[in-house]
Write a structure and sequence with these properties.
Number of strands: 7
Radius of gyration: 16 Å
Largest sheet: 7 strands, antiparallel
Structural class: alpha+beta
Helix content: 10-25%
Strand content: over 45%
Oligomer: single chain
Length: 124
């Protein structure tokens, strides 16, 4: 289910490259499923940013990371089983990439969503 749309302001253009919405097969244990998916996402971010994750990340709480390679912001609301993270980095050709990942419990199901987008400077 890949599709694109663009938002433009006067100096930048944001293009959605990929978007996904799914239900995580939790087999009854939603906390375990949320933590398993979050661990996969966090390990990717830690490897890319080449940083040690803060203790809040390992406890699935809100945190922020800034490094020379990018930025990561996470918001967690435990009572709602809401966990969302935005991972941002810039490539050598000055494209700024955003990876937005979110999970939330809804009606006894764990929903997962991801949007990958890029922003590039139009000049001016």
């Amino acid at each position: 289910m890949s599709f694109s749309y663009a938002n433009t302001n006067f100096r930048h253009r944001r293009l959605t490259v990929y978007q996904l919405r799914a239900t995580v097969n939790a087999s009854g244990d939603l906390d375990y499923a949320l933590h398993a998916v979050a661990d996969l996402v966090l390990s990717y971010i830690a490897k890319y940013l080449y940083v040690k994750l803060p203790s809040e990340a390992m406890e699935y709480r809100s945190f922020e990371i800034d490094s020379k390679r990018g930025r990561c912001e996470c918001v967690s609301v435990e009572e709602r089983r809401l966990w969302t993270v935005r991972f941002r980095f810039t490539t050598k050709n000055n494209l700024c990439w955003f990876y937005d990942v979110a999970m939330i419990e809804e009606n006894g199901r764990l929903l997962f969503g991801e949007v990958i987008s890029k922003v590039f400077n139009l000049g001016g």
